[in-house]
Design a protein that fits this description.
Bound molecules: nicotinamide-adenine-dinucleotide, SN-glycerol-3-phosphate
Largest sheet: 8 strands, mixed
CATH class of the largest domain: Alpha Beta
CATH topology of the largest domain: Rossmann fold
Number of helices: 14
Number of strands: 8
Helix content: 40-55%
EC number: 1.1.1.94
Structural class: alpha/beta
Distance between the termini: 49 Å
GO molecular function, one term: glycerol-3-phosphate dehydrogenase [NAD(P)+] activity
GO cellular component, one term: cytosol
InterPro entries: 6-PGluconate_DH-like_C_sf (IPR008927), 6PGD_dom2 (IPR013328), G3P_DH_NAD-dep (IPR006168), G3P_DH_NAD-dep_C (IPR006109), G3P_DH_NAD-dep_N (IPR011128), NAD(P)-bd_dom_sf (IPR036291)
Radius of gyration: 19 Å
Number of domains: 2
Subcellular location: Cytoplasm
Length: 326
C-alpha cells in the first residue's frame, strides 16, 4: 500500500515506522519544512521521538500535494490543529482513500470528537485507531495492542491488516464513539494521576483515582452514545492504565509537575510535545455539564488548568464530597 501519515510528532513517526515495517511505502508529512529537513538529514526525529533510528525507506515532506493517490491516510495531527490541517489535504484525498484518525482529543470550540471534525471536512465517515500505545515503545518494537473502530467492517479489516505485525496487534470494534472517547477522556484523568504523583500520594490514591476516573469516563461516554462495555477494553481501561502509570505519558508528566507546584505557564513554555488533557479538560467538563453528567475529577482538573486552583485544595475538595454509593 501507499501510506501517508499526516503529523510528524512522536505518534505519527511510530505509526509510520509500523507501516513501513510491514512493507508499505510510507510518506510522513509535517507542517514546518525546516523541521522536516532536520529529520530527513539526521535520520532521527530528535524533537518528538529522540533516540530512534528512522528507516531510510520512509519519505518526509511538508507538501500536502504529496498525499495525492495514496491508499491509506493516517491523520495524527494534535486536536488543536486538526481541522485546519485536514482542510489543506481535501483537494488531494480521493473517495477511495482509507482514512484513519489516531489523534486523541476534542475540538476545543465545538467539543466534537476528531472523527466528527473529519466527517465535517471530508463529508464522509472515517475510522479511528486508539489504545494503550506510547510512541516511544511502539517505535522500539515493544509488543502493543490497539483497537481500530468504525462502522464499515471491510474498511476496518483493511486497516487492521495494514498495521498488524508481530509486535503490533490490532483488534476491530464497531463502537467508534466509545473507542474515540476512551482515548480522549483518559488524558484528563492522567493529568490528575500525575498531580497525585507530584503531591507524593500513594498507590491506594492512584488506584482510587483510576477506578473513579473510569467510572466518570464511562458515564459521560454512555451519555454521548458509546457502548459502556467498550470502556473495559484496550481503548478504555487499557489506555487509562498506561497513561496514568507510564513514565512516557506527557499528560501524567505535566500533572506531576503541577502537583510539585510548578505553574502551568512555566511547564507549557518549555514543552513542544502535546498534552491533550490540558487542552481538553474544559471541553470534557462542558460536555458533561451539557449532558448533566457528574465528572468530579475532570471538574477539579479543569479548575486547576483553567483557574489555577491549588492541586492540594482540589484533592481536599474531591475527598470531602458528600458520601455516595459506589
Ligand atoms: N505520543 C504518543 O505516544 C501518542 C500515542 C497515541 C496517541 N497520541 C496522540 O496523537 C496526537 C499527536 O501526538 P504526537 O505525540 O504525535 O505529537 P507530538 O507531541 O510528538 O508532536 C506535536 C506535533 O504537533 C505538530 N504541530 C505543532 N504546531 C502545529 C501546527 N501549527 N499545525 C499543525 N501541526 C502542528 C508538530 O509538527 C508535531 O507533529 C495527539 O492527539 C496524541 O494524544 C500520541
Ligand atoms: O503521552 P500521553 O499522555 O499523551 O499519552 C499517549 C497515548 O495516548 C498513550 O496511549
Amino acid at each position: 500500500m501507499n501510506c501517508f501519515v499526516i503529523g510528524n510528532g512522536g505518534w505519527g513517526t511510530a505509526l509510520a515506522m509500523t507501516l513501513a515495517g510491514n512493507g508499505h511505502r510510507v510518506t510522513i508529512w509535517g507542517p514546518f519544512e525546516e523541521e522536516i529537513e532536520t529529520i530527513r538529514s539526521a535520520g532521527e526525529n530528535s524533537v518528538y521521538l529522540p533516540g530512534v533510528d528512522l528507516p531510510s525507506e520512509i519519505k518526509w515532506t511538508s507538501d500536502p500535494s504529496a498525499s495525492a493517490g495514496t491508499d491509506l491516510v493516517v491523520m495524527v495531527t494534535p486536536s488543536r490543529f486538526y481541522r485546519s490541517t485536514l482542510e489543506t489535504f481535501v483537494p488531494y484525498l480521493s473517495e477511495n482513500t482509507l482514512i484513519v484518525s489516531a489523534t486523541k482529543g476534542l475540538d476545543e470550540k465545538t467539543h466534537q470528537r476528531m472523527s466528527e471534525v473529519a466527517e465535517e471536512v471530508l463529508h464522509r465517515e472515517i475510522a479511528v485507531l486508539s489504545g494503550p500505545s506510547h510512541a516511544e515503545e511502539v517505535a522500539r518494537g515493544v509488543p502493543t495492542a490497539v483497537t481500530v473502530a468504525g462502522s464499515d467492517f471491510q474498511t476496518l479489516e483493511k486497516i487492521q491488516a495494514a498495521f498488524m505485525g508481530p509486535a503490533f496487534r490490532v483488534y476491530t470494534s464497531d463502537d467508534l464513539i466509545g473507542v474515540e472517547l476512551g482515548g480522549t477522556l483518559k488524558n484528563v484523568i492522567a493529568v490528575a494521576a500525575g498531580i497525585l504523583d507530584g503531591i507524593g500520594l500513594g498507590d491506594n490514591s492512584k488506584a482510587a483515582l483510576m477506578t473513579r476516573g473510569l467510572a466518570e469516563i464511562a458515564r459521560l461516554g454512555a451519555a454521548l452514545g458509546a457502548k459502556p462495555e467498550t470502556f473495559s477494553g484496550l481503548s478504555g481501561i487499557g489506555d487509562l492504565i498506561v497513561t496514568c502509570a507510564s513514565r512516557h505519558s506527557r499528560n501524567r508528566s505535566v500533572g506531576e509537575r503541577l502537583g510539585r507546584g510548578e505553574s502551568l505557564q512555566e511547564i507549557m513554555n518549555g514543552m513542544k510535545q502535546v498534552a491533550e488533557g490540558i487542552w481538553n479538560a474544559k471541553a470534557a467538563r462542558d460536555l458533561a455539564e451539557k449532558h448533566h453528567i457528574d465528572v468530579p475529577i475532570t471538574e477539579e482538573v479543569c479548575q486547576i488548568v483553567e483557574n489555577g486552583k491549588d492541586p492540594k485544595q482540589a484533592l481536599h475538595d474531591l475527598m470531602n464530597r458528600d458520601p455516595k454509593a459506589e
